[in-house]
Amino acid sequence: MDFPSGGWGRDAEVPPARPVPGAGPGAVNPFLSLLHSISSGLSETELSAMKFLCRDKIRKRKLETVQSGRELFSILMEQQEISSGSLEFLRKLLQHIDRDDLVAQLVQFEEEEPHAPDGQPDVHEKGLLKAASAVICDNVGKEWKKLMRELGMPEVKLDRIEAAHRFNLYEQLVQALREWQRWKGKDAKVADLIKALRGCSLNLVADMVEEKISQLNTGAR
Fold first, then answer.
1. For the whole prediction, is pTM greater than 0.90?
2. What is the domain-level CATH number for residue 134?
């Protein structure tokens, strides 16, 4: 089915796109390009199925106005259900409608990492991250993937790490945290690790990290 070209829908505003390293003023945002490509490949039946699967995310009246994948994705972006760094919900939608070819496009996008920020945390934050990671690696075992999902790590990265370090939970988490820090760049913060731990109900580990960070900050004064 061919959808009309033009805007993303009258009722949904596209949120500001995250900067893409190396993208000049006239460059097309890779994430929006990905969504446009996926939308163009959807049939009317597939779009209808995706809308049905979003009924618990989007109000019925708003869903009824959606006429294209672009409009649906715009609303999901507005509600922060999908973003360039969080594609798990979109992946599940495409899996439910048996579009493995479109899932493959997501995987390629994630592997190319066009959304990864430049730079590194400052020296102090890097020291705190190292200490926090050590505590986490010593105290989080089989739930490491749950923690990394909470941090927004793409599933394709987690699967790759798991395959590379099979049967070694400790090393899987070590590598996952390193990958997360590299992925986040200068935006990697200990506060995000603590928030993610609590989001996974790993409150004891979160308390241990906070205590360690407090000790380091006190000693630095």
1. no
2. 1.10.533.10
